[in-house]
Amino acid sequence: MTSRGIRRKKSSLSEVKVAVIGAPSVGKSALTVRFLTKRYIGEYDHQQDSKYKHEALLDGEPILFEILDTCPKSLDELPGNEIAQWADGLFLVYSITDRESFNYVRRAKQSLHPDVPLTLVGNKADMVHLRQVSPEEGEILAKDFECSFAEVAAAEQVNQVGEVFHELCRDVLSLRKWAKHSLLDRMLGSKSAYRVYSRGKSDSALPKD
Ligand SMILES: Nc1nc2c(ncn2[C@@H]2O[C@H](COP(=O)(O)OP(=O)(O)OP(=O)(O)O)[C@@H](O)[C@H]2O)c(=O)[nH]1
């Protein structure tokens, strides 16, 4: 109780699970560590998937991020479906300097059939002189995936990388809010309802507070 006898409502922690998917060496760990610590670690020796927990305030709301930084050994190793089932949101990361990594995210998306919010991320945007994938190609693929798109440079950007994580988290929370109000959610479950949600998003199907 406060001194005026009014009990303040404690805001509960929302948990958001995010998986970072992409071909080897596109900068998945660099992006994850940039978000978690604001630091850039150039060489990150990483032999298996890593999971991190991180508490942060998003738009005044406390969020517990759980981040899965995946670690495929080769371009032939696509993420398993258990990742899409575990995650509330996915980053599909490629390097703008590596055409093969762009093809990898296309294959990863096809193999996963994710029913959760996605963000397509073109990393290493500081290396424009070595660019193999244009921003327009990224935008077209994101349209095809019906998801958000950003080019970033984990090596140089702190705020932009943070904002990309925050935007995906906002999408996850919007979906939850929508699903709570949705009859479809009760009928189909929140992940299947997402398909319908993402199509109807542009028709402003979101409920107001
Ligand atoms: N120039 C530049 N290099 C980057 C950037 N992000 C990562 N790198 C470099 O790319 C290499 C691979 O980065 P990682 O973060 O280990 O990539 P990863 O996708 O986690 O790699 P795996 O764990 O092997 O799948 C490292 O040498 C990084 O320093 C970036 O934004 N710009």
Walk me through the structure:
The chain is built from seven helices and six strands. It has 209 residues and is α/β, with parallel strands linked by helices. Helix 5 packs across helix 7. It has one domain (14-187): P-loop containing nucleotide triphosphate hydrolases (Rossmann fold, 3-Layer(aba) Sandwich). The protein has helices at 28-37, 81-86, 99-112, 135-145, 159-181, 183-188, 190-200, and strands at 14-22, 50-58, 61-69, 89-95, 118-123, 148-151. It has a six-stranded mixed beta sheet with strand order 2-3-1-4-5-6, with helices on both faces. The structure holds guanosine-5'-triphosphate (GTP). Guanosine-5'-triphosphate (GTP) is lined by residues 22, 24-30, 42-44, 46, 71, 123-124, 126-127, 153-155.
